[in-house]
Amino acid sequence: MQRSTDDLTRLLSILPEPIQTHIEQHPQRDVLIEIVMDLGRRPEARFPGQAEYLSDDPITQQDLQDCVDRVGHFGGDNRAGIEQTLHRISAIRNRSGDIIGLTCRVGRAVFGTIGLIRDLVERGQSILMLGRPGVGKTTALREIARVLADDLQKRVVIIDTSNEIAGDGDIPHPAIGRARRMQVARPELQHQVMIEAVENHMPEVVVIDEIGTELEALAARTIAERGVQLVGTAHGNRIENLIKNPTLADLIGGIGSVTLGDDEARRRGTQKTVLERKAPPTFEIAVEMLERYRWVVHESVSDTVDILLRGRQPNPQVRTMNESGKVLISHELPDAPIAPKPPKDAGVRGWRASGQMKPLPRTNGVATSSPQKHFEQLLDASLSSSPQFDRFGNEMVDEEEQFYLYPYAISRGQLEEVIGVLELPVVITKDLDEANAVLALRSHFRNHSKLRHVAKARQIPIHLIKSSTIPQITRALRRLLQMDDPGVPDVADLRLFSHNASDDEIEALEEARLAVEQIVLPKGQPVELLPRSPKVRKIQHELVEHYRLKSDSFGDEPNRRLRIYPA
């Protein structure tokens, strides 16, 4: 269970007396976030989800000066604190340097807040915390430092730039346990203190709050390469924000443009210049704190960044904590498109319409005005590429980007159905000379030595599948186009499996999809479906195979039905 301590009385003691009285009697004082006092305005108290005025009288210059006198010195970052507390008082100054506003932030030590990721903390890997201001990053950082120092008996050094983690004064707050704290004279010197901590004090763990400059990101990489575990926070809500931030991109491995050869670009089905991660990330794990008790966990930052640069969406863990303190772990699967049958005049459909499997737009060799601008264009293309359309609403694909496929013993109807529904840039060809690859049925290809020799002589890759079914063909095409990632479950487009789009087929497929995605995959439990006709059960079997799961039909007609088993 969680418990917290806030020393709220110490913070209230610096405020004007009417404000103190109002807060002390307020029913929500235990969840108070901050008190804002601006010259000439009414004082305001902010609580989760709401704010209210504390007085009808505006704040005067004397009110502000009395508070400043009780607090003491403000540092170069315009922050001050109360000794041996976690409260933070931040000043707003006018152009002359006079203080005209104060933000009095309540600091709380919350014990048990890292129950959501305690198993990750114990691994010894570096962890990066992301989230909007006020979501609890510093609180979590403080608790992580205490757990590592007290429970795991590690040598922990905290780089406390603004004295937010361990409080103001020379004696650190008890909330950090046995961890040691190094203060920073000026914010711009944080990167130097980070290196000094490693060189002088032999820490096993370094804790850093608010990595915000390129020098600090470089210092973090230097520390990580020395084998020291890092736990830190950075500006940004999601990993996508760091990818777009050239200052902090090094924390996740750095992003660089790479020029591919003609053959490699054709094999990938992409443009010749693409974005790739330059190096291993400084932090192996990233945690996006969306809400105070709802965190998204990327257990492999390198995999997440690579997936995002390919224009796809990752499938991270989502960890939540209920009222009893139990941690619930789930995965957010992308929304599956549920057909009714799309209208004939619809534009892009299938997985491309939902942001999946979109080839990057070509640059056509046009030089940009600067390397930085070119890089930004590539980055925008990777993260949010949008296809071009002709005047009829059809997607335009450059002829050079099309992937020419030579099928052998494969059902052409099923092959064309997959290509059409998924909007893949694949052209079926009967001319082996212009083929980029051969897709063949394994049992038939073994006896066709001539085709093997011709493909080998012309260096055409051959991809074999066990059976000519929709899931096998779909998986093969995704792999040929470098769109396959076995670690991410594919989202099923039901139109692939429905033969005539009848209501009965769509209903049966939707039943099977929900059973797989909501019970079999996340909970690991077998599921029995409703009785269906043999024809409908067959397409249900194909859909289950698409998810790499097994299924059996059992029972007697007309009550024969499907049972789906976990992997």
From TrEMBL:
Domain R3H: 503-567
CDD domains assigned to the protein according to its UniProt record, in alphabetical order: AAA, R3H_AAA
Leader peptide range in chain numbering: none
InterPro entries from the UniProt entry: AAA+_ATPase, P-loop_NTPase, PTPase_dom, R3H_AAA, R3H_dom, R3H_dom_sf, Spore_III_AA_AAA+_ATPase
Highest taxon listed in the record's lineage: Bacteria
PROSITE patterns: R3H (PS51061)
Keyword terms: ATP-binding, Nucleotide-binding
Disordered: annotated segments: 334-368
SUPFAM superfamilies cross-referenced by the UniProt entry: P-loop containing nucleoside triphosphate hydrolases, R3H domain
PANTHER family: KINASE-RELATED (PTHR20953), P-LOOP CONTAINING NUCLEOSIDE TRIPHOSPHATE HYDROLASES SUPERFAMILY PROTEIN (PTHR20953:SF3)
Name of protein: AAA family ATPase
Organism in which the protein naturally occurs: Phormidium yuhuli AB48
Record lineage: Bacteria, Bacillati, Cyanobacteriota, Cyanophyceae, Oscillatoriophycideae
